[in-house]
Amino acid sequence: MAEHVTSRKLYFAIFAALMVLTAATVAVAKIDLGALNDVVAMAIAVAKALLVLLFFMHVRYSTRLTALTAMGGFLWLAILIFLTMTDYLTRGVLLDDVPGK
Amino acid sequence: MASTTMEPEADAAAHHHPALQHQFDSLEQQKESSTLGMWLFLVTEIMFFGGLFTAYVVYRRTFQGVFAAASHHLDVTLGAINTAVLIFSSLTVALAIWSAQMNRRKGIVFFLVLTILLGGVFLGIKTVEYSHKFHDNLVPGPNFHFDGPSPEKAEIFFSLYFIMTGLHALHMIIGMGVLAALIRPAWKGRYDASYYNPLECTGLYWHFVDIVWIFLFPLLYLLGAHAR
Known about the structure:
The complex is a heterodimer of chains A (about 100) and B (about 230).
Chain A (H helix, E strand, L loop, with lengths): L7 H22 L6 H21 L7 H25 L13
Helix pairs in contact in A: 1-2
Chain B lengths: L26 H36 L1 H8 L4 H26 L3 H31 L15 H37 L9 H26 L6
Helix pairs in contact in B: 1-5, 1-6, 2-5, 3-4, 3-6, 4-5, 5-6
């Protein structure tokens, strides 16, 4: 695989985008959107993380094996949180008097 | 990282790049291998922090109101400044690698030093925040005091805050140590466009620590900021 060199210009552009998104997440947090506050904050955080992953960490230009490994890590984290919440979010749904509820 | 092969059959390889270790066919293969290895380590790091993030999600859902109230005691401005500092340090570490790719020896050293300094700024601000928490008796333990309906639930928030940011800060300290260890070989001209694996792997680690903070900042600081 030929070595990919990311230009300085692109690094600066990613940096600028990350700063804008940081300002946006602080600004949005001060507006009451109800449950949407969490959704927006997490969407912005995921967007920032993707920019760092793809460009700063060069995943966009890495081999498929490396990209797959990186995705695997986040997939397993998603499984961890998802399966945990299938428990916590459904307590009391099937049985009304679950102990400890 | 330099290896010296002593086997006689390595004579032909004697003219190879000094950083190329004998088990690899080429520098390219060596770089692939180290990048993949670093990523495998980062996957374990994702799960390491992931357990804490999961704990956060569970408690956050259970004690929603108290968590928002407790979050008000964190300084959003300092947190936002630290986010900017950390993102800037990610840029500088990326530029250190860029300098290596451009064969700019002094550039590598400059950006490594700048990255360490920015890490220091982050930890300095964190220290100020921590000392405020100690002063306000918001550190979980016998002296914990919280004016609110359920102090014991707020204590869980601050336990998560200290464990997550503390573990993150520990990662920063380790990262700064590794970056510092790279300065000398970089100054000696050990890294250039043909070989900079240690820079690349350390960069991956540093960016990962940045990503952890990208999630910690909204989850801990911005939670319920609108109700302020």
